[in-house]
Amino acid sequence: MLLLSRIAGIFFIFGCGTLLHHLFKWSGRSRLVAPVAPVNESLWEHFKMFLWPGLLIAPLEYALVGREHPGFAAGTAAGLLLMPLATALGFYAYTAVLGRHVLALDIALFLVAVVAGQLTGHLVMTEMRPHTWMQFAGVAALTLMVVLHAVTTFRPPRFGLFRDPVRDCYGIPDEPGLDTGP
User: Fold this and answer.
1) Could you give the CA distance from residue 58 to residue 64 in angstroms, rounded to a whole number?
2) Fewer beta carbons below 10 Å: N end or C end of the chain?
């Protein structure tokens, strides 16, 4: 049953993440939406497309099957940490080879990262012997991810991962008349 919920999570995260990509623009650039939806085309902002859908589905998954798996929090955190890591590594690798980004490869990479993260989470939940410290670390990692994404939306560090290559800016673009939706 856990494997089925993880597979359903793949579709949920991919679908919701895709919608999140446009939510900031659709909201009229609402600062209330900014912490949960990408505000620009930086790689970091796109990591929200994994985080929020993954966190949204986690309580439902826990209620359905998670109680049977003491490593649930650690597995959820492992999966949600792997998704952006796999995306960053894949993105920087293929753009180094091609010299540019390709939208079809970005979408494929998004899907591959979601699948890898969900399956990794499943393995952690089922194959690793859970310890209390792992559960605590999982909850702490998830909390840290939420805080980092909220803070860096409004105060992004000035280095590559946070830079919007389309508008050459960091954080929320200032141009009020510009179509700023990712």
Assistant:
1) 10
2) N
Q: What is the DSSP string of the chain?
A: -HHHHHHHHHHHHHHHHHHHHHHHHHTTS-TTTTTTS--SS-HHHHTHHHHHHHHHHHHHHHHHTGGG-TTHHHHHHHHHHHHHHHHHHHHHHHHHHHSS--HHHHHHHHHHHHHHHHHHHHHHHHHS---HHHHHHHHHHHHHHHHHHHHHHHS--SSGGGEETTTTEESS---TTS----
Tokens 């080879």 -> residue:
97
Q: Encoding tokens for residue 11?
A: 């579709």
The domain spans of the chain are 2-169
| Chain segment 65-87, per-residue pLDDT in tens | 888 888 889 999 999 999 999 99
How far is 144 from 92, CA to CA, in rounded Å?
Answer: 24
Structure tokens at 164: 């919007």
Instruction: Say whether pTM exceeds 0.85.
Output: yes
Q: For residues 72 and 123, is the Cβ–Cβ distance under 8 A?
A: no
CA–CA gap between residue 154 and residue 5 (Å, rounded): 34
Between CA 168 and CA 29, with CA 23 as vertex, the angle to 5 degrees is 60
